[in-house]
Amino acid sequence: MEFSTLHDLRGIRACRPISGLDPSVIAFAGDSAGGYSVTTALAARDAGLPLPAVIVAFSPGLDATRTGESMTTKDGIDPIFIREAVMHTGAMYLAGQDPEQPLLSPALFADLTGFPPLLIQVGTNEILLDDSTRLAARARDAGADVILDITADAPHVFQAFAGGTLDEADQALDRAALFLTQHFLTP
Q: Which of 43, 160, 168, 173 is deepest in the core (most CB within 10 A)?
């Protein structure tokens, strides 16, 4: 079975329980592997299932080729991830499959035509920064409504430090809540 087919099946299984719901009340969201919020939407669309109203991705991994410049320039700056570890775990995840597939590297290869509004939050200190910037550019080029929200000096999944530990995390989650509110409460 080709890797993308396996992802299609996972995405479709994830969408089936909600396929009877009004898509205007559904959001896909996730952190780090939050790239799955993007790939699940791709798999749903390709399977003819409705897309969610919005997608929110916090520090998503969106490029299994690991070719973004930030993989090198932010290595040693990001306190959560180091390049060597991401390359190692990525190789285990790929299990020999070609990373140049839309569901493995949507920031580089996915057709984002018809995608719902997308909020991507990422920190400037992340080795995955370019995953976010490249997906945002690709989504914009495809006509999607996208907000790329970059927080200065923030590490990978900095939003997890909300609740008084990191003010920027609280502020980022407030912006995400505003994004969701605007899209769900606007007729």
A: 43
Q: Which run of H or E residues covers position 48?
A: none
Strand partners, 57: 30, 120
Residue 155 has pLDDT above 70, yes or no: yes
Q: Which tens digit of pLDDT belongs to each residue from 48-66?
A: 888 899 999 999 999 999 9
Q: Are strands 118-123 and 27-31 parallel, antiparallel or unpaired?
A: unpaired
Q: Cα 101–107–111 angle (5° rounding)?
A: 65
Contacts of 151 (CB under 8 A, 6+ apart): 121, 122, 123, 124, 158, 168, 171, 172
CA distance 54 to 26: 7
Catalytic residues, by residue number, are 32, 126, 156
**How high is the mean pLDDT of the chain?**
88
pLDDT tens per residue across span 59-113: 999 999 999 999 999 999 998 888 999 889 888 888 999 999 999 999 999 999 9
